[in-house]
Structures are given as C-alpha cells and as structure tokens.
Design goal:
12 helices
Amino acid sequence: LAGLLGAVGRQPDSAARLQEQVAEVLGEVCRRLTAQGRGAVATWLASNTAQLCPQPAVLFVAAQQHATSGNHVKGLEICQQCIDADASFLAAEEAMDNIKSLAVSHWHFQMLADRERNLAYANAIGRAVTYARATMPDPSMPLTVLDIGAGTGLLSVYAVRAGADRVVACEVSATFCDIARRCLVLNGVADRVVVVNKLSTDLTPADLGGKKVHVVVTELCDAGLFGEHIVPVLTHATKHLMLPPRQTRGACSVRTTAPVIPQGAVLYGQLIECPSLRRRVARLEDYGLDFSQTLLQPAEPYTCDQLTMLADHKALGPPTEILQTSFASLPDTTRITFDVDTAGHIDAVVTWFDLVLWNEAGHAAGG
C-alpha cells in the first residue's frame, strides 16, 4: 500500500490508473486490522488513503470502513463523493441504501409519523415542565430537562417549546447525535439543547452543566415494554441525575411527584391462534434437528407484529390486564391466568401496553 501511494505521490496523474490496485490492497489491510480488533486503525488508514488518492474506488473502500466502524454519517458522505466523482458507480449507490438501513431502523420513521403519540408526548412534557417550574424554590431560575435516548431530538424540541431553559439530549448512537443536531438547528432550538453522545448511566456532572436536572423524559420502550431497560435507566436517572422532587401541598394531601416521563404503564395480553405465525416460528427441534448450542437462537423471547397483517389469526379469549406498573422498580414475577372462550391452538400470547406519560392528577396524558 505504501508503495502504491508513493507512486501516486510521485505521479499524481497515475491515481486514476492505480485506483483499483490501491482499493484492493486497502480493503484487504482494513479487513485484517478489523479482524485483529484494530478497527480504529483501519478507519484512520482508510481516511488518510482516501485523502492521498481521492479516486472513486478508494473512496468506496473508505466509506465501507467508516460504516463498518459505526460512523454511518461519514460513510454516507464518502459514498456521495464517489457518486459525485462517477455517476455510474452503482456499487456506491447500493452501499448508500445499505448504510441508511443500518443507520436508522425502519420503525423510527413509523414513530415519527405517529401524530397521536407525538401530541401525547408534547402535552405530557408541557405539563411536567409547568409542574417542575411551579415546585422550584425560585421559579425564575433556569430549568433543565434530560432527554434520554434522544434519537432525532423530537422530545428535546418539545421540552424547549414547553419552556425549558436548557435540555441535555443524551444519545448513544453517533449517527443519531448527528441527525439530532441537524434537526435542532432546523427547528431553531440548537442554542438551548446540548447533545451528548453517551449512555445516560455514563453522564457526568459536567455533561449536565454542573447541576442536576429538573425533568427527565425518554422513549425507551420497545415492543415488549421492558426490553430497552427503561426501569434501571430511570432508576439511575432519578437517583443520580435528577433533583429530588419537592413536596407540594394540594387541596387534601402532600404530593411528591417526580417529573419523569413516562411514569408507568398498563400491560395487556391475549391468547391467539395463528397458523401462519406457527409456521414462521416453528422450532428446529420439531424437525428432529438440534441447534441448541449454536447462534441460531432468537435474541429476544418475543417479536413484533401487527395483528392486522396476520389475517388468519383469531382470539381465543378476551384481553387480560397483566400488570400495572410504575417505572420506579421492576415488577415482581407473577402467574397470569388467561380466560379462554374459543376452542383452538394457542400459538402466541399477544401483548400491548398503554403508557402513563404524566400522572400528576391521577390521569394519563396519553397512551
């Protein structure tokens, strides 16, 4: 690789002619370095090689290396450079589509397009910020909101519009941090939101501006409710990152509501029969095969489907409330009894939940 780059340096006109050789050697070196656990070195090498020989084939290898290392935004930018340099570079166009799929899961778009859900969050955040302001010793002091798992920054925008003076948007994905910063600029709130590329459990006092926050908001709920660790995350946040709730006297009692969104959930379940689902998740053991010691095992004990897409399903009984829980602690394991009023084969337990976003007065702001 050094010899090829030396030749390009001595004769810049040879870059186009040698680009395929440079790309092939660079790709092999990057693969070996990555296999050795030296991915950062591979990315550094790819970036510098692309600067010395900025030809489409070499840029393409650099784009792939950045995407492999998790820097999807940089990978997309370099892919676009490939296409700008060579409009017929179809591999770069295909790579852009693949990197976009890796960078942003399809369900993010469904969430962002869910108007009812978004309005419920906006209303709840507005009420929580108002409540926190009213319970501050000095309501004129700056109010800070922590947005955990900020993603595109949607809830941070809502918090600023609700009256927060400062928002710390915590997001572990570097790709989403970049997207969030751009969205915050587009919505005119970038001067009041700080994006931090960390897990919330790794935040330091400096990340929070030296002071604990007044309100915590998050969307860490997957299809199974608890799969994204919302309970330990909020437990850590309320204990280490958030100011303790002040006692305020209502008409009849003392309240110590912590301004945390969401505050809890109601989980429901129902037994269904669904032949198409049964065929799709048939166990390998059913065919006399043993794959118990392999990686061919489900990563999660559940999957996400829309019942409207399973035309052959039928309910075997009425919906059952499984549990009501706050996010202050994990619920105890319990035995659930489901009523059955229709004969059939039990293929799945379908679950869904209503979120209690803000419960200051005993009523959910949205579900």
